[in-house]
Amino acid sequence: MKIFLSHILIALLSFACLGCAANQKDTPKPVPKPALPYKINLVWQFEHRPEIDLSTLDKVPGLNVVSPCWYIIENEFGKIQDISIDGYVERAHAKGYQVWPLITNGFNPDRTKKLLDDENARKFVIEQLRQQFQKHKFDGINLDFEHIYEADKDRITEFVKQIRTATKQDNLILSMDVTVPKGSPNWSLCFDRKALADHLDYMMVMAYDQYSGSSPVAGPTASHDWVEKGIRNTLEEVPPHKVILGIPFYMRLWHYDKDAKRFYAKTLTMPKAEKLLQEKEKDETFRCRWLDKEKVTYVSYMENEIPYSFWQEDKRSLAHKMDLIKTYNLAGVASWRYGFEKPEIWPMLEEKLKEATPPERSQETQEKKEQPAKK
Question: Are residues 192 and 203 in contact, defined by beta-carbon separation less than 8 angstroms?
Fold first, then answer.
């Protein structure tokens, strides 16, 4: 009888263990949450003229983060050039914006290398950033470290780690701008995206400059297929809740130089492109067509026997790119730069981010909005 009862007990324990194992196996892993409970809608403010000062202008629909370009590391000793504006953060907070000022290395690889070699210089940068926080009480920092030697990849990651340690003490959001993964040593291979993501709240993927202004070949600023490929490649190393899609409010007007046998370009803002279309649309050489694969409008015309062309970024082209946020459940959008867009862009961005926000996140966002702005 004892043996029989023992067998029953063992069987019951076995079933219980199997049940526990099954429950553990069936229990889904918790989905990582982004640092903030809403989709980010950020724009960089490069200039500080009164007519484009986001802290004094009317509230932009849907915009929730502004990134004024305030700080430049101006030498290898870590001295920061400061063009911050007193009262900006308070005024921005009153409009419901968070403020994440941008700090850049000046895109100088030699200076950056010397800075990374010098522990005291790195500490000096961090000390100055903390002093700026104490002065302005901003909400985060946006790192724009570009044009770095590939050999310095690990050291730039270590520097970001040090900055992260400091920003945690002040409860600041830390974000960083990176290019899409590609083969350029100084502009792309210098980023260990996977390692950097461990120390960042957000990573802005600058999905533009597919054909840079110095390219001898003409091409779009951000064709849809190229952007999507860049996002997919980024997501192989960085979780989607940290990835913010960077979009351009600009394009490039290309012309061909027969003597140099190459193309040259200048930047076009959205309003300037629209004006150019109106000026040229009656010209007999004018051509304009939508490209299904690239999801941009291609425009070409002749002027003084010189061929001109541009791939137009507008509400339609950007709307297609914004759909990628929902497709890949990205953390939001960051736009370069304020003042280059047309007003119609903002309601579209706001609507696309609403479409990309899961219902439970919408509730969290509403609760967040009901909280008083940070002082």
Answer: no
Element (H, E) at 325: helix 315-327
- Domain 40-248+314-360 coded CATH 3.20.20.80: yes
Distance of CA 114 to the CA centre of its chain: 27
- Comparing C-alpha atoms, which of 94, 97, 88 is closest to residue 69? 88
With residue 65 as reference, give the H or E element that holds it. strand 65-73
pLDDT at position 4 is 47
Q: Distance between CA atoms of 94 and 143, rounded to whole angstroms?
A: 25
Q: If you search the block for the tokens 């029953």, which residue do you land on?
A: 8
Residue 279 backbone phi and psi in degrees, to 5: -75, -35
CA distances from 64 to 202, 203, 222, 248 (A): 15, 17, 24, 18
The answer to whether 335 and 255 are in contact (CB under 8 A) is no
Question: Is the distance from CB of 106 to CB of 156 less than 8 angstroms?
Answer: no
**Angle of helix 119-136 versus helix 153-169 axis, rounded to 10:** 30
For tokens 């497709």, the residue is 327
CA atoms within 13 A on the CB side of 310: 20
Measured torsion, CA atoms of residues 163, 82, 334, 316, in degrees rounded to the nearest 10: -160
Q: How many helices (H) and strands (E) does the chain have?
A: 11, 15
Helix/strand/coil for 359: helix
Burial of 177 per CB tally in 10 Å (0-12, 13-18, 19+):
buried
Rounded Cα distance, 285 and 283, in Å: 5
246-273 confidence digits (pLDDT tens): 999 999 999 999 999 999 999 999 999 9
**What are the sequence ranges of the domains in the chain?**
40-248+314-360
* Per-residue pLDDT at 367: 58
Write the pLDDT tens digit of every residue in 160-171.
Answer: 999 999 999 999
Q: What is the pTM of this model?
A: 0.90
